[in-house]
Design a protein that fits this description.
The chain has about 130 residues and is of the alpha+beta class. The protein has a single domain, classed as GTP cyclohydrolase I, C-terminal domain/NADPH-dependent 7-cyano-7-deazaguanine reductase, N-terminal domain (GTP Cyclohydrolase I, domain 2, 2-Layer Sandwich). It has five helices and six strands. The strands form two sheets. Strands 2-3-5-6 form a four-stranded antiparallel sheet. It has a two-stranded antiparallel ribbon with strand order 1-4. The longest helix is centred in the last third of the chain and has 16 residues. It is globular. It starts with a helix and ends with a helix. The mean pLDDT is about 95.
Length: about 130
Protein backbone atom coordinates (compact mmCIF):
# COMPACT_ATOMS: atom_id res chain seq x y z
CA UNK A 1 0.00 0.00 0.00
CA UNK A 2 1.38 3.41 -0.97
CA UNK A 3 1.72 6.10 1.72
CA UNK A 4 -1.24 8.17 0.44
CA UNK A 5 -3.54 5.14 0.35
CA UNK A 6 -2.44 4.26 3.89
CA UNK A 7 -3.11 7.81 5.16
CA UNK A 8 -6.59 7.83 3.61
CA UNK A 9 -7.50 4.31 4.74
CA UNK A 10 -6.33 4.88 8.32
CA UNK A 11 -7.64 8.46 8.67
CA UNK A 12 -9.48 8.89 11.96
CA UNK A 13 -11.44 12.14 12.06
CA UNK A 14 -11.29 12.24 15.87
CA UNK A 15 -7.50 12.14 16.07
CA UNK A 16 -6.28 13.15 12.59
CA UNK A 17 -8.39 16.20 11.71
CA UNK A 18 -5.79 18.79 12.69
CA UNK A 19 -7.22 22.02 14.08
CA UNK A 20 -5.20 25.23 14.50
CA UNK A 21 -5.83 28.37 16.54
CA UNK A 22 -7.27 31.28 14.57
CA UNK A 23 -4.89 34.20 15.12
CA UNK A 24 -7.27 36.76 13.64
CA UNK A 25 -10.21 38.11 15.61
CA UNK A 26 -11.89 39.95 12.74
CA UNK A 27 -14.61 38.29 10.69
CA UNK A 28 -13.36 36.76 7.46
CA UNK A 29 -14.59 34.00 5.19
CA UNK A 30 -12.61 30.88 4.33
CA UNK A 31 -13.81 29.21 1.13
CA UNK A 32 -12.69 25.68 0.30
CA UNK A 33 -13.50 23.81 -2.90
CA UNK A 34 -12.88 20.07 -3.00
CA UNK A 35 -13.64 18.99 -6.60
CA UNK A 36 -12.69 15.31 -6.35
CA UNK A 37 -15.03 13.99 -3.66
CA UNK A 38 -15.96 10.35 -4.11
CA UNK A 39 -17.98 7.90 -2.05
CA UNK A 40 -19.79 4.65 -2.79
CA UNK A 41 -23.54 4.30 -3.14
CA UNK A 42 -24.82 2.33 -0.14
CA UNK A 43 -27.28 0.44 -2.34
CA UNK A 44 -25.33 -0.39 -5.50
CA UNK A 45 -21.70 0.18 -4.53
CA UNK A 46 -21.25 2.38 -7.61
CA UNK A 47 -19.04 5.43 -7.10
CA UNK A 48 -20.66 8.83 -6.66
CA UNK A 49 -18.63 11.95 -7.44
CA UNK A 50 -19.18 15.47 -6.18
CA UNK A 51 -17.63 18.84 -5.62
CA UNK A 52 -17.75 19.84 -1.97
CA UNK A 53 -17.86 23.56 -1.17
CA UNK A 54 -17.12 24.66 2.39
CA UNK A 55 -17.47 28.28 3.46
CA UNK A 56 -16.87 29.27 7.06
CA UNK A 57 -16.16 32.26 9.23
CA UNK A 58 -13.83 31.00 11.94
CA UNK A 59 -14.25 31.71 15.59
CA UNK A 60 -11.24 30.51 17.63
CA UNK A 61 -10.17 27.61 15.36
CA UNK A 62 -9.40 26.78 11.72
CA UNK A 63 -8.93 23.42 10.02
CA UNK A 64 -5.53 22.56 8.57
CA UNK A 65 -5.80 22.15 4.78
CA UNK A 66 -4.02 18.80 4.38
CA UNK A 67 -6.19 17.40 7.17
CA UNK A 68 -9.45 18.45 5.45
CA UNK A 69 -8.15 16.96 2.19
CA UNK A 70 -7.44 13.62 3.88
CA UNK A 71 -10.80 13.68 5.65
CA UNK A 72 -12.68 14.30 2.39
CA UNK A 73 -10.63 11.61 0.63
CA UNK A 74 -11.43 9.13 3.40
CA UNK A 75 -14.98 8.89 2.03
CA UNK A 76 -13.84 7.25 -1.22
CA UNK A 77 -14.12 3.69 0.10
CA UNK A 78 -17.20 4.25 2.25
CA UNK A 79 -20.74 3.26 1.38
CA UNK A 80 -22.64 6.43 2.31
CA UNK A 81 -25.55 8.36 0.82
CA UNK A 82 -25.38 11.88 -0.58
CA UNK A 83 -27.38 13.22 2.35
CA UNK A 84 -25.39 11.37 5.00
CA UNK A 85 -22.00 12.42 3.62
CA UNK A 86 -22.94 16.11 3.40
CA UNK A 87 -24.47 16.08 6.88
CA UNK A 88 -21.44 14.31 8.36
CA UNK A 89 -19.02 16.84 6.86
CA UNK A 90 -21.15 19.70 8.21
CA UNK A 91 -21.50 18.14 11.67
CA UNK A 92 -17.79 17.31 12.02
CA UNK A 93 -16.70 20.83 11.08
CA UNK A 94 -19.40 22.49 13.16
CA UNK A 95 -18.56 20.41 16.24
CA UNK A 96 -14.78 20.68 15.96
CA UNK A 97 -14.42 24.30 14.82
CA UNK A 98 -17.48 25.94 16.40
CA UNK A 99 -17.37 28.52 13.60
CA UNK A 100 -19.34 31.76 13.56
CA UNK A 101 -20.77 30.69 10.20
CA UNK A 102 -20.62 27.43 8.22
CA UNK A 103 -22.01 26.39 4.88
CA UNK A 104 -21.40 23.01 3.21
CA UNK A 105 -22.64 22.28 -0.30
CA UNK A 106 -22.25 18.83 -1.86
CA UNK A 107 -22.87 19.12 -5.61
CA UNK A 108 -23.06 15.57 -6.95
CA UNK A 109 -22.42 14.70 -10.58
CA UNK A 110 -25.56 13.44 -12.33
CA UNK A 111 -26.05 9.69 -12.29
CA UNK A 112 -29.08 7.95 -13.77
CA UNK A 113 -30.52 11.31 -14.89
CA UNK A 114 -30.54 12.68 -11.31
CA UNK A 115 -28.47 15.66 -10.18
CA UNK A 116 -28.34 16.11 -6.40
CA UNK A 117 -27.20 19.15 -4.44
CA UNK A 118 -27.21 18.99 -0.64
CA UNK A 119 -26.81 22.33 1.16
CA UNK A 120 -26.40 22.92 4.88
CA UNK A 121 -26.18 26.52 6.08
CA UNK A 122 -25.73 27.45 9.74
CA UNK A 123 -27.85 30.58 9.31
CA UNK A 124 -30.79 28.34 8.45
CA UNK A 125 -29.98 25.42 10.76
CA UNK A 126 -29.31 27.38 13.95
CA UNK A 127 -32.54 29.38 13.81
Amino acid sequence: MKYGEKEIKEFDVDKDLEIWPNKHKKNYLIKLTLPEFCCLCPRSGYPDFATIYIDYTPNDLVVELKAIKLYINSFMNRNISHEDSANEIYDVLDNKLKPKYLKVVADYNPRGNVHTVIELDSEKIRK
